[in-house]
Write a structure and sequence with these properties.
mainly alpha
């Protein structure tokens, strides 16, 4: 995979994680929904989440409610 693409994706993910971590409690749910939408919108992250769910079939990550 193109290292520049991976680096850019990593930077965007870090930026969103920082935004989520710094969210005030009143806005946290909105920020979490936004973060979850970002993850689901990218094939790479969707694939990673599917792989994690396959590795742990008892996890609650299959259908998270947010």
């Amino acid at each position: 995979m193109n290292s520049e693409f991976v680096q850019n994706l990593r930077y965007k993910l870090q930026k969103r994680v920082r935004r989520l971590n710094s969210a005030e409690h009143q806005a946290f749910h909105f920020c979490l929904r936004q973060f979850w939408g970002y993850l689901q919108a990218h094939e790479i992250f969707t694939g990673i989440m599917q792989d994690l769910a396959r590795r742990d079939p008892d996890s609650e990550m299959k259908n998270p409610v947010i």
